[in-house]
Each structure stands twice: as C-alpha cells, then as structure tokens.
Amino acid sequence: MASYIKHFKDIRHTDGAQVGGKNASLGEMIHELSEQGVRVPGGFATTAEAYWHFVDENDLRKPLQEALAELDREEFSNLEEIGKKTRKLIREAQMPGDLAKAIKEAYAAMKEREKEMSSVAVRSSATAEDLPKASFAGQHETFLNIRGAEEVVKYVQRCIESLFTDRAIKYREDNGFEHMKVALSAGVQRMVRADKASAGVAFTIAPDSGFDQVVFINGAWGLGENVVQGTVNADEYYVFKPSLEKDKHAIISKKAGRKAKTMVFAKEGAETTTRNTDTPEDQRYRFVLSDEEVHQLARWCVIIEKHYDKAMDIEWAKDGVSGQLFIVQARPETVHSQKKGSKLKKYELKEKGKILAEGTGIGGKIASGKARLLSSPEESKKLQKGEVLVTDRTNPDWDPLMEKASAIVTNSGGRTSHAAIVAREIGAVAVIGAEGATEKIKNGQEVTVTAAGGNVGLVYDGKLDWEEREIDLDEFESPDTEVMLILADPDHAFQDAMYPTDGVGLMRLEFVINNSIEAHPLALVHFDELEDEEVKAKINELTRNYDDKEQYFIDELAMAVATIAASFYPRDVIVRMSDFKTNEYANLLGGEPFEPKEENPMLGFRGASRYYSDAYREGFRLECRAMKKVREDMGLDNVILMIPFCRTVEEGKKVLDQMAEYGLKRGENGLQVYVMTEIPSNVLLADQFAEIFDGFSIGSNDLTQLTLGVDRDSEIVKDLFDERNEAVKRMLAMAIKQAKEKGVKIGLCGQAPSDFPEMARFLVEQGIDSISFNPDALLQGIENILEAQSSQDGHAQRGRHADARSSRS
Hints:
The protein is of the alpha/beta class.
C-alpha cells in the first residue's frame, strides 16, 4: 500500500530518504528530545513516494529531464528560462486525488491532536536536504499561516514547484546532486505565532570563528524571515556552555540590534502573505528575549547538539499567544564542521585609507576590487568575477551570482543573515549591516573590504596593500616558559584563543570602559547630580535597557571580561583593574567633574591609590561587582585579578581590604590577586609584596620609565628609553629572584622579548615563569623563547661536558 504521509511522531532521523533532512530532524526531536523539555511543534510530512506519485501521475519525468538537459552548465546563461519552464510543468499539473485525500486526512488528525492550532506552516524538505556537506538552506519555499485542508493541499504543490527555483537548480548543479534523484517532501507543522512575538536562529558553535564552547543566538520581533534574510540588525547573544552546565548565568555577551522592521502576516485576497511593518521606537532596542528565555533556548540547543553529536544550525520561534518557545528546525552546521587541521590564515592591512562604510565583519579576510552596486539578482550580468558586490540585502535568489564576488557588502543584516551564511560557505569576505553602504560607495569605485579586525568590518576607498600569512599551529613547539597574550578587545577573543598559548597574562579593562561603556563610573553612580543635560541625555541613551545605571556598568564590564575568560577557559586570564590616568578618566562621558587636574597624571592619581580613595571608591565598587559576577555568578573562576601601580605594601593592604568589603576576598572561592611590578619599590620590597599578593606581573614599560627617569611618551628623550639598559635588567633579575625565593609566580608583559631576542634569552635565563605578548608579536616571541631555551640547554650541556673532563683529569 502506498505510503504518502508520515506523522512527525513516527519519523526518525534515519528517514531522510523518505521525508528529507528537515522533516526527519523534526520527527527525531519530537520522538527523542521531548522528554528533555525540547518543544517542537507537531505535524506530518508528505513522503518521497508521494512526490514521485505526483510526478508520474502527471507524466512529468520526461518533460522535466528534457528541460533540464537544455541547461547551460558552463555559464548558466539560460538558468532563468529553464527554471520557469520546469516550474510551469509542476504548477499546471493536477494533484492526484488519492494524495490529496491522504493530506486532508492527516491535516484533520493533526487538528484533533493540536487543540490550540489555528494555522500551519508548510515547509519544503528535499530528500537530499540538510546533509553536513550541503545545507540546502533557503533553496526551497516555506508558506506560513495556512488555514484549511484545501489550502494545505494547494501549498504542498507549491512546495513541490519550489524544487525547481533557479537557485535550487543551481545549488544541485554545484553540489553534484542529480536533479531527477532528488524528491520533495512537504512538512505541515503547527504554526508558531512568532508574528505576535519574536523568532531567530541559533548555532551551537560561533558562526565566524568556529569556537565550539558557545551557543550563538539571535532574534528579532515578528517572523524569523527578517533575521534569515538580513532585513534587520537583530539581537545577538553568546552563551557559554560550561557555565550553562554548572547552572550559572551563562550569557557572556548580548547586544541589542536596531530591529527597525517587524514581519507580520497580511491578507492579499485569498492569499496569506507577509509584510514588514515599522517597529515602534520604544521596542527597537528592547531585547526580544529575557535572560531566562536565552538560557532555555541555549539548553535546548546543547541537548540537540549532544543528540546529533555535531554542531547544529537551529531555528527558533516564540509564540505570542501562548508565550512559549519552540524549536522549528535543526540542521547540521555546514561551514566549520567541514574544516580540517589547525591552520590559521592571518590578514593584516599594511596601510589605511578613507573609510566608506562600517558593519559586521564576516570571514576574517581582506579583498579588493571594483564595487558593483546591484539592486536585484536580475542584474547579475553586471557583476564581473572578482568584483565587490554591494547591495541592500540578499536572499537565496542571489546565490548563483554571489560566488563571483571577491567580497560582499550589504546595508542590513547580521551574523546569521543569508549574506553572512553564504559568505562563510563560499569563503568570501563580507561586511554585513553596513548602513548606507549603497549610498556611500559609488558604482565602479575601487575599494578594499576587510573583516580582519575581529567583529568589525570596514570598506576603504581604493586598493590598499595587505599581508597574508598562513600559520600551522601544529608546528609550534610549546616552550618551557609559559607564553600568554596581552588582550583588550573581547571581539577578537574567540580567534585569539586559537593561538598556542597558556592563557591571558594581561587583560586591560580600559579598552572596554572607553569603547563599550563610554561613561565614567561615577557619572553613573551620581547620575541625578550631573548638571550637564547633554551628557545626561547621552548616558540615558547608552543605558536605555537599564533602570539601574550602575548595573549597566557592571553588566557591560562583566560580559566583556567573561567573553575573554570563556574563550580561554580553563586557562588563566589575568584581569588588570582599571588603570586610566586622571586626564583619561576625565575624557569619559560625564567624567570631568569627578577628576582633578594634574600636571603629571602618569605619576599622580592612578592605579591602587584610586581604589580606596573617597574620590573613586564608588567607581572601584562597580569594577569589583563586575568581577564578582564573572567569577561567581558566571562560573568563570579562571579569572585572576591584578592591581596596577601599587606604590607601597600598606597601599596594597588597603586595596585588598577594600576588595574584601566589596565581596572579593583573596583566597575565597580560589580568588588570586596579583600585583603589577612596575615601580622600583615593587622590586626592592618584592619579598614583602609577596606576603600579601599571589603573583607578580612585570610591566616593563613603566618599570623602565621609572628606573631610568625617562618619560616614555616624550619624543625628546625617546632614545634613552631602552628595556635592555643594565639598570633595568638588574631590576628584572632582582624581581624574578625574589619571587622565586618566595614561591610566587612572576611574568612579564611587554614588547621587548619579541622585538629583541637577547631580552627573551635574558628572561629565560633568569627563570621567569611567563611572558605575555600582543597577538601580532606572539609567534615571533615564541620563536625567541625557544631559541633562548635551546641556547640555555647548549650552555648547560657544554658545562656538564666540562665538569666531566675536569673529573677525569
């Protein structure tokens, strides 16, 4: 007996040949994961047998084969013509009576089961769909908010027709699928009313870097198509899996997108369509999910990933009627899961130019070429191979021409938009959501597109020079001396964590406070007392999602530190508490009233002296609360805290007491507190500082400056600034020796060991525990340390030979 229908509850992942990967995945999740709380809307699927029955009852095999045989497989010049011809054959065919009857009966049974169901989604699932090497994502059609049995039958046929969209034909050609061996299954699924709430996409791996310890979620108001197509800049959340497993607060990053449009349902005659409405201003920057909902979705994503034992690409939706979350699709991730080996390609611009547009960088690469402004895929002939495609946004209809582009630039979209996903799949560089790009970039203009700067992507005027390097991480030998990184920008963290390092020797908070938080902490504490109305308006804009302005500082700082700590977990991440000078603090929004004027801020009110002072104590409280959140609420206990510019032992004790008052007691919950060694007093009294701190980190710039009495920022005496000076080296040797004698760790942060091999050799000879480098200097630094070790081993071996000769004589 013919089997035209399978209900989701009876489908398993092994049924892909019958119902396609998409429907097989839905059935598998309903059957296997419901008991673990994963909520998937019920439904049924037509089978491959139903598809071939439709084709054969209408005698379509031969006409379809003949039409597809005419396809120009070199240039695809007649792709549009062939697509129209094959779709017309399907559209004008008749749905066989027995198949229509089976669909209507399955729909009636579904209505009986799904008591609250008001409408359904009819989704296409090709029988070769969602394989790990080819996602087929977006190649076929989905129809939403369909009501009534007759309409369901009609849209099942529309799904069959979509097997022959231009993009689907091209996709099968590119991926080596024979057209007449691929069938189409239609999944009929209870409609989740995301039009009244929100929807989006989730990956169980960071979509850009491939970092596998996070779940990435994004979303927007209304139906999920706006997220997938990149019509809006969506909210973004990163959730750290190990923290999630410990039942900790696991959201290490969340950013509100602008979400200017909301996609809802609309009626056009008898047809149900969708339309984009303007999102109300007060909703645009509101997060579409609560923290609790983000955690729930992330847990479901991890359950799905573990079940399939591979990274997954997942679609979710929130029902605005019931308020419940649902998983509506899950397929294998197809970019990073296919990568092999541990090679890292680094791109670096050697010059800068005029910035034309800025957005989200995808691909981590750099490319250049003539900009070609296109408004629709019909203009594909205007784009020559190697040119830069610039457009408002893309959808799957653009796929055949995107492969020709050296880079892709869009006005709108986010990390999981269509343009971003395709750019990753084809290995192109892209700048997504570069608002106004189509107005700022001229057609035919030579441009350089870079996504080599972390999350930020830029489009420069003209062809700029850049450097490409391929690094085989497996070739790097691990030195005895620990190698660590100096970091400031969390946007680079997932990529930087791929380097062969022992962790982060110095994370500077100043970059985050300056670039992400922007406001002076005391301006947030004493917001109501501020007199400058313009400053207050700007702070209100920054803190629009917070009733408590202090909490804004705490959360933003905590998430930035957590992103870096999670990237390197469980390796140590040493976080230096803020070390702005007074003039730098004054430049923060609202900072001027809280900062004294100093003749020499470098030697004034900075570092430790601020933390226990009445003039800044409340600001330090916010920093401490942020670090407590990272370590305790988020479970990132690999964070070590470090105090900068601590002039005296007494001052160190005051700071530690102040930290304990704010919930950060040294030794409690494994908390370690280091101190910077950057003042001669830190070296001369290292034995005493070792009694109250857990470790030292030498700040070579300040130590050189204060040992030689040379202003490191002065052009006039810059030639006298030299870490290799004998006085500085004696200071270094003394600090390392005393740390060793006291049994505490000591490292150095600075450029000298990478710039000067003799400095690396000197530090290795003194027995330093770790050396930290900026990412661009790391590989050279490792080579210098290995060379120093080799030289030291050679000296030791020659010494042993000499001792042996002496004893024989």
